[in-house]
Every structure is written in structure tokens, then in C-alpha cells.
Amino acid sequence: MPSQNNTETKIAISKRDNLQQMHSDDPIGIFDSGVGGLSITQCIQQQLPHENLLYVADTLNAPYGEKSAQFIQQRVNEIAQWFIEQKVKAIVVACNTATVNAIDQLRKNISIPVIGVEPAIKPAAHSSKNKKVAILVTKATAENQRFLSLVAQYRNNSDVTIQPCPGLVELIEQDKKASIECQQMLSGYLLPLIAQGVDTIVLGCTHYPLVKALISEICGDGVLIMETAQPVTEQLQRQLTLHQLSNTSKDLGTTSFYSSKHSESQQALFSHIWQRPLQLKHYP
């Protein structure tokens, strides 16, 4: 698509100017298709408290799990370009679907550190006593060849079930995490896995940790639930250290929130998940 090529050209031009001007107190850009990436942002803020963060939710186009790879790549490039205009020093793709569909081409276009989110397949395969692992994912991730290659690479002789969860992201975005509808949907996805002897479940979408308590309740104590916020934060920290970009200020950093679908209900949802009031701004 012409618009996609134009976006890639802009990013390639911007990256040279940006690299010449990067400073340790520049912000870190974090984005997701919606509110799911807030689970990763919370972990980053807690463990890197002096860093300044910009969070973008592309809620107008959520969920990415139902979109084409071409569309996802275009949106990722457009958001990355905006981040570069805000002079970010690193970008965290806090979305599994965006990572598997767009991170490789994004890294070719920009030189600043780009950290993606990948399901914890390898540690799950090692942790499973029954050698039966399930990965909860969006439809787009389930069909992505990069993701399927990761599963094949790290399954470690485990029986891995890839479980698409259509509709779950939409319920989370609508703040229906505690609804009977959400409980019934999750039960429909999870109970057959438990019946098959699955003892380790990987949350392969950053939205899913927001219903982790419900997942645990349905699965019971005998099932290990694994997510990716901690590994992503650790990788971000390694990249900042490698490029000498860690913020050395003793002041606490700031976090700014943006959504492509700005509304009072969106602000209320963000504040609810963030567990304190926040000011949601319109992206772009």
C-alpha cells in the first residue's frame, strides 16, 4: 500500500535525526491495540521508576487479532513514527499480535531499541510436569507463521495446544471482565484444556493478564499461569543499559496515556485498570 511505504520512508528518515539527539531522560514509547499493554506498563513503571513513559492504545482499531497482517503493520509503523516525533529512546510493542505480525519489519526501519512481547513458550515447556501446555492467543497470532515457528522451536517435546480466544479482548475492552459472559466464554476455552491434562497455560495476549484471576479460578490451583510482563521489562532494561540510555535522574518519571478512541468511558476504564485516576489524551 502506498501509505504503508510512505510511513516506512518517514520512519527511516526520522531515525537518523533521532539517534543523533537521544538522551537518557527521553521517554519510552509503549503501545498496544487497547488497554492490555497497561499490564506491561505497570511492571515497567514499578521496576524502572525513573523512566518517563508514553502509552498509546490504538483502541479505535482494537482488537488487532481480527485484522490483516498488512493493516497491523501499517498501524505499527504509524504509531512508531509518532513516537519518534515525540523523541522516544525505545519502543515497547506491548501487544503479542503486533509483535508477531510487525516487529521484524519495524526493526528494519528504525535503529532505536524495539522490544516485543513473545509468549513464554520455552519456560512453560520446561515447567509443565505433564508436558501439556496451552497458549491462549488471538486469531491473528494463532495463524501467524512467526508465532508457529516459535512454538515449534521451544516446545521441548511438550504437547502444545494453541487456543484462539475470539471475543475475549472485546469484553476486556468493554470493561466486562467480571461479567457472566466473560466467565462463560473463558470456561468454554479453558475447561476442555484442563480435561486434556494441560497443567501450564501461557497468556499469549497482553489483554489476558487482566483476567488472570478469573482464569486461575476456572483452572484451579493445579494449573500454572504464565505471562510476559517481567521478561519484557528485563529486556527493556538490558537494552537501555547496552545503549547507555537508562535515566539517571533521582526524580520519579512521568507516565502519559493516549488513546485513538478518546472518551469518558475510556478514561474511566484506563483509571480502573491503572488503579488510580489518570488523564487520558487523544492520539495522535
Can you walk through the features of this model?
By secondary structure, this protein is α/β, with parallel strands linked by helices. 48% of the residues lie in helices and 15% in strands. The strands form two sheets. The chain has a six-stranded parallel β-sheet with strand order 4-3-1-2-9-10, sandwiched between helices. The chain has a four-stranded parallel β-sheet with strand order 6-5-7-8, sandwiched between helices. Strand 1 (28-32), helix 2 (38-47) and strand 2 form a beta-alpha-beta unit. Helix 2 crosses helix 11 (229-242).
Overview in brief:
This protein is an alpha/beta fold and 284 residues long. The protein has helices at 2-21, 38-47, 69-85, 96-109, 121-127, 139-142, 145-154, 168-173, 180-195, 212-219, 229-242, 264-274, and strands at residues 28-32, 53-57, 90-93, 114-115, 132-137, 159-164, 200-203, 224-226, 255-259, 280-282. It folds into two domains: 2-117 and 230-282, Rossmann fold (3-Layer(aba) Sandwich); 121-227, 3-Layer(aba) Sandwich (Rossmann fold), CATH 3.40.50.
| Main sheet strand line-up | 4-3-1-2-9-10
Q: Assign a percent range to the helix content.
A: 40-55%
Number of domains: 2
Q: Determine and state the CATH class of the largest domain.
A: Alpha Beta
